């Protein structure tokens, strides 16, 4: 599997970003190519090497470098470690995703304790980053599923159907017909497409068929729907109002005539 590329950025590239580079390489060097740079680079603080050596973390190849020396590279991730670097580097770095992690500069304090604190905080943040990136990564064998999923979201009716079902957990054809103000044949056709793409699954209760998100829908797909819903609540607000106007919602079967 091709390695992802990641760049840590801080102002001086003399402490925080060097600690992050060495630590991330130890934790996930098999999956990521890891770099660091500074917007105004300075020599590496000797305490960086002391702290890394005490933790048995390799400091091999660590050196301070200017962000401009990497402006021809495109990274999968760029992570800024101070607000100043984030403000000044956004237009300089080429990356698919730019994340902002803000850590206090340990150089301002005497001794190595502040460096140890930053290293511990970086370790926790990197663990969460790796858990998230691995959980929601689309694997090569899932690529066809990903294409089907995003094609489904490209249609207005299907996207709203998925968001409504996610919000309500389960809906039948008549509820979607009322909420979306569409004909039953059209809603049924879209539901069939979503079911064939393994995005929805159905449950028969008496004469009624209810639809919900598929139990085996990948985590990354669920996260896409969650983020879409949380950041675009107005998209289905009117549809939810129409759904609520149907009457006594708990009497689901009685509404589906």
From TrEMBL:
**Example of a GO MF term:** DNA-binding transcription factor activity
Residue ranges of every copy of the HTH arsR-type domain listed in the record: 138-232
GO BP terms: response to arsenic-containing substance
What InterPro entries does the record tag this protein with?
Answer: ArsR-like_HTH, HTH_ArsR_DNA-bd_dom, Ptyr_pPase, Ptyr_pPase_sf, WH-like_DNA-bd_sf, WH_DNA-bd_sf
Q: Would the keyword Glycoprotein be found if you checked this record's keyword annotation?
A: no
Keywords attached to this entry: Arsenical resistance, DNA-binding, Transcription, Transcription regulation
Q: Which PANTHER family match?
A: ARSENATE REDUCTASE
Name of this protein = Metalloregulator ArsR/SmtB family transcription factor
Q: Which organism is it from?
A: Rheinheimera lutimaris
Its lineage reads: Bacteria, Pseudomonadati, Pseudomonadota, Gammaproteobacteria, Chromatiales
